[in-house]
Amino acid sequence: MNKEIIKTELNYKAVRSSGAGGQNVNKVSTKIQITFALETSNGLMDEEKITLTEKLSNRITKDNFIIIECDETRSQLKNKELAVKRLFILLENALKKEKKRLVTKVPKRVIRKRLEDKKNQAEKKLNRKFKL
């Protein structure tokens, strides 16, 4: 994944944001929407595109776009930076390979303790039964 190439492929759109800001909200577009075309990206290899489409299937639109929105701050520039960071975090997390789980054997001591606890619990309940 080449971040520099991906940054040039992003489409930014400024939208009016809801929330705090007073009268400023009605006249300034501070909310940022980033659209990233996954299929046509030159910053990703083919294998990466395939894994991203599989892992991020719930985030991808029908046209194979990933859309990220940010309206946390009142500054358009800060929102832009935050949205780009979020996109790269999303892509990196999706591209991480999961480690295989090593199968481990349960120690005999643990099995023995579990069975003893089970036996003790059964005895407790039996004693309650016959105390009537």
From TrEMBL:
Task: Name one molecular function that GO assigns to this entry.
Answer: translation release factor activity
Task: Tell me the ranges covered by the Prokaryotic-type class I peptide chain release factors domain, including all copies.
Answer: 16-32
Q: Which domain of life is it from?
A: Bacteria
Give one GO biological process term: rescue of stalled ribosome
Q: Which Pfam families match?
A: RF-1 (PF00472)
Q: Which Gene3D superfamilies match?
A: 3.30.160.20
The record's family statement is:
Belongs to the prokaryotic/mitochondrial release factor family.
* Protein known as: Ribosome-associated protein
Record organism:
Algoriella xinjiangensis
